[in-house]
Amino acid sequence: MEDKRRFWTKEELDFLKNNYKTMFYKDIGKKLNKRSICIKDKVSRMGLRKQLMWSKEDVEFLKNNYLTMSYKDISKKLNKKVVWINDKVSRSRALGNKAFIKDKRYNHSLTPGEEKQS
């Protein structure tokens, strides 16, 4: 992977600016031959913010499927991390969103494999 002393080229910086919001750091790292921690650090040092965007369609899909599909399957469908799915459902419940009130018959929690996909 990356040599610790190798500087970022203009092309790499442009690629990072254009893709950090939509790609996982590990995927950017593979493309640029850098470790994901280096990508995360550079994004932070550049003052860029990676805010997770949820489209109306994504939220609707989540509302309709979070009780019947695993978070892992939902994450694949929406191209979002499992932890993001869990956070969205948890925050929606905490805010009292009736669409996300947990069915008492259903007890979804992250499995150890799902937790590691963050």
Tags for this entry?
118 residues, mainly alpha, 2 domains, 0% strand
Notes on the structure:
There is one protein chain. By secondary structure, this protein is mainly alpha-helical. It has two domains: 10-45; 56-115, no CATH class. The chain is 53% helix and 0% strand. It has seven helices and no strands. It has helices at 10-19, 25-32, 36-45, 56-65, 71-78, 82-94, 112-115. The longest helix is centred in the last third of the chain and has 13 residues, at 82-94. It starts with 9 loop residues before the first helix and ends with a helix.
| Low-pLDDT regions | 103-107
Strand composition percent:
under 5%
Give the helix tally. 7
Task: Kindly report the average pLDDT value.
Answer: 80
Give the domain tally. 2
**Major sheet characteristics:** none
> How many beta-strand segments?
0
Distance between the termini: 21 Å
- The SS-based structural class is mainly alpha
Pattern of helices and strands = HHHHHHH
Radius of gyration: 17 Å
Q: What is the 3D shape?
A: elongated
**Proportion in helices:** 40-55%
Task: Briefly say what this structure is.
The protein has 118 residues and is an all-alpha fold. The chain has 7 helices and no strands.
Summarize the topology.
Layout: H1 10-19, H2 25-32, H3 36-45, H4 56-65, H5 71-78, H6 82-94, H7 112-115
